[in-house]
Structures are given as structure tokens and as C-alpha cells.
Amino acid sequence: MNWPQLIITVITIGSILGVVTLALNLQYARGGMINFGIVAYFAAGAYAYAIATQPAPQGLDQYSFGFDWPWWAGFVAAGFAALVFAVVTGWPTLRLRGEYLALTTFAFAEVFHSFLINERRIGNGTVGLSNLERPVSDWGPIEEKYVFAAAAALLLLVTLIAFRRLLNSPYGRALDAIRDDEIAAAAVAKPVADMRRQVFLISAVPVGFAGALYAMFTTLAQPSLFTAEVTFVVWIALVLGGERPIYGVVLGTLGLVFFEEVVRAWPFETVRSAQIAASVEHVVTGLLFIAVLRLRPFDRISEQLKARA
Amino acid sequence: MLFLQFLVTGIVTGCFLILATIGFSLTRRVEGFLNIAHAELLGVGAFATWWFNASRGWHIIAAAAIAVVITALVGLGIARAIYDPIRVRGPAVLLITSVGVAFVIGGVIDALIGTGIRTLDIGLATSYEPFGIRITNYQLLVVALAALVSVSLALFLNRTRTGLAIRAMAVNPELAASRGIDVRSTSRATWLLSSGLAGLAGVMLAVIATLTTDLPFAQILVILAVAILAGLGSLYTVIASGLIIGVAMDVSVYWIPAGYRPLVAFAVVIIVLLFRPEGLAGTRAA
User: What's the distance, CA B265 to chain centroid?
Assistant: First the structure.
């Protein structure tokens, strides 16, 4: 097994997904919103980047728009697209609570996914958009994969710092108040519904950026990359890392991605054994999920640390 | 005429959806959470039928019967081993856990069955064409079963002791317990019933559809659509919304490409939720 390559992949993919997990953490642990359609915001970012930087369609291309903008414009467009998508989906759904919200966001993500597949004018349907633009192709002596790993880690770090600052501000404390007791918060004139909507919108933007970075890294925007499975993986990572400590979320994502990449990179002798391994990966992921939710090991550790301090 | 054909196909789809959603909705009402793994239980039913029927050479009815029993027991086992211990932590944790359970069941089915298309060892469908509308005997079977299940479930929930106990638990578990209802055995009955219904829906899936290992989980989307539309309310709203979604999906093919069918289902749901945030039933009453 090629360990250095594996670790680089884990850092890159793990950081990109880590941004998504952070956003989810903000929505769930702070805003009390269960978003089961987070992959759609990720996909919106990736597709926005692809469409903005693609050259105009030609030959067999079925997509209608390609603006051929530089990469940074595409990156900004990705954040903007995720924001717009959050506005559109947040408007009808945020009046719903708990599991109803979970179901409706899930529904929105599926609708979006089916739209990407069926509406070939957006991005070639199931074929997707390929050969996406990467910012710079010549990095001199440094290999491109290191640059991507660094960029992904940087995006994660920036998101982490931004969210931390937000949560440690009076605004963040108001959010905590709303989560802990909505009626009490409303009684001291905190705009509960407005703030919840703001959190929903704020957290969507970095997810869009992460989507753009993912599109650059894979040079591909394809519906099959953005299935509900991404949502579940991110949720598992969130559960793994525990809801509250914001660093735990990042560690949870990195750990889960590491596990998946190891299974994927394992040299298998036959197709059948690789296939079984893929199923086993599902089983183990599921079991991990169940066990962590049941035993809450990380929550206990942090409680013990708190008790000692 | 073509429109009528789509309408009839839509009713068949709706009947399948009723079979698939009734169990899900029952769990939601009595156990109080959304069991995402319900869709994978359809897979357990479908592939158990396939295994007994196609690999062991059993008659389809025997294979289907044993598959339903197996699915019911698997459902009960999962409930006891996994859901019961974390019940106190609330519906959100149970919902997320059920996603993990769905992963596990799906992975096990994948590992045992493998990829590719599976077909049951039953004859090809015979089609009838009354008034120029084509319908197969298997489609009629789905409609008949849905009707039979709905009626007998309604009778069961309204007339029998266990059925009334299930409804009492759905409305208020503490009050039900304090009035002397055996909560454990009622919960067991619910799990056996809802998982058995999932197994039956799985058998129907194996009969009418081209069976692959990712097919059962794909059903969760439409099951959720029906369940949200019904507002997770009574048996009757589940029947109504199953038919509404089934007909809406298939009739939409008359105007727009068939690939948009799931999208239509959720479009209906989103429109309904805009006007009635609690779904068709309006209230959470049983």
C-alpha cells in the first residue's frame, strides 16, 4: 500500500468534507436544524464552479452554459450558488422542525440530484462535466497533489476560525440560548426565526466553496459523485466527532475518510473480493455509526475532562 | 386513452406505495421515529423470496410466506437489539441510528447477493386489455393485496385487543401503560406487523420490478414522500397519499420525461407542505 499517497488523499478529501461537517455542526449542534440534504449545497457549489469555468459548449456537449471565467470567479460563484440554493430551500423548509425538516431537506437534495441527471442542459446529465479547470498547472518543483492538500487544509482552517469567532461572539451565545430554550430566548427579544435562517445561510457558503474545491480536485462534476451517501458520511463523521467540541468534528471526518480510503486502496485479488470489501465497508460504517450513537465515547471523555478541570 | 393508461399504472404504483409505507407509518406512530432502515427491510423480503424461489426451487407462495416471516423477525430483532436501548435519547438519534442500520442491512445484502439482475422463477406476466387499457395479472395482484392489507389492517386496529392497544400507544404511551396495556408485547406486535408488511412489499417489489441490490433503498425516497404527505397520520391518509403520489408520478409521464418521476413525488410533497406544514392529516392525531 502506498502510504504517503494515501495520507495526502485523506488530508485533501478529509479537509473538504470536514468543511461540510463543520457547517452541519453549526446547523445541528447550534441551530438545532437537522439537514439531511447537505450534499445538495456541496453539489451546487461544484456545478457552479464547473459551469462558470467551462468553455462554451461544442460538439457533443449538451450543456447550455459555459462562461469560461477564471478559476477564482468560479470559486466565488460556487459560494454564491450554495447561498442562493440555501435561500430557495430555506424559505419553505425552515418553518418545519425536527424530523420534518430532515425529511424536507432530504427531499430537496433528491429533487436537485434528479434534476442534474435529467436536465442535460445544466451539466450533460449523468455524464457530467469533466476536465474542469484547475487554478495553476505549473507549481515548479512542488507536486500538484500537495498544493491541493494544502488548499483544502487552508479552507478547513479558515472555516474553522470563522465559525469559532462567530460562535464565541454575543451572536453565538444568542444562538446557544435559542437552542437551549426557544421560548426563553424569544422572551428576551432574540429574533428566533431570523437567526435560525441566518445560520442556515451562513453555513451554506463554505459548503459551496468546498464543492468548488472538490470539483477542482476531481476535475469532474457528475451526479454520481453527489448522492445521499455523501450526506450520510458527513453525518456519521459529525456523530463520530461528537456534537459540541468543534475540533472533534474535524477529527471525526478525517478518521472516517482515512478508514474509507484504506478500504479502497487495499489491494484485492479478485473482483468478487473487492465487491465484498465494498459491502463490508458499508456494514462497518453502519456499525460504527450505531455504536458511537449508543456509547457516545467522545462526549464522555469531554465530560470527564470538564469534571476534572 | 394513453392518459387513462398512465392513470391505471399510477394506481398500481400507488398500491405498491401503500404496501411499502403502511409499515413505515405504523412504526412512526407507535415507536415515534422515522425508521429509514424500513426500505432495506423491503430488500430482506425481496431477496429472501428470490433465494427460496429461484435458488432453492420453492413454490413462489411458500417462498413469499417464509420471506415475510423472516423479515418480520429481522425487524423485531433489530428493534430489540438496537433501537430499544437508545429510545430515551429521542427521535432524532433514533432516526440517525436507523441510517446506520440501513447501511448494515444494505451491506450484508450486497455481500450475500452481489451485483446484477435477479429474477424470480415465476411465469411471465399475462396482460389483459379491458377497454384498451393494458394491465398485467401481477399488477392486479398488487392492487388486490393493497386492498386486502388495508382492510384487514383497519379491522385489526379497530376491532382486536392488540390493535386497540397499538393505537392507544400511538396516542399516548404513558397513559396507555398506566391503563394496564403491556407496552412490551404491544411494541413487539407493532414491530412484527410493520416489518412483516415491509417484507410483503418486498415480495411485491420482486414480483413487479427488475430486482437489483440497490433497488430497495431507492424506495425510501418515495416512501418518505408518501409518509410526509400523509403527515404520518392515520392509516387512511397513508392510503390516500399513496394513491395521490402514485398517480401523480405516473400521470406526469404524459407530459414530462419519465426520469422526473421522483421529482414529481417530491414536488407534490413540497407544495403540500407549503400550505399544510403538518401534512394532509393536518394534526398529529391518530
Answer: 16
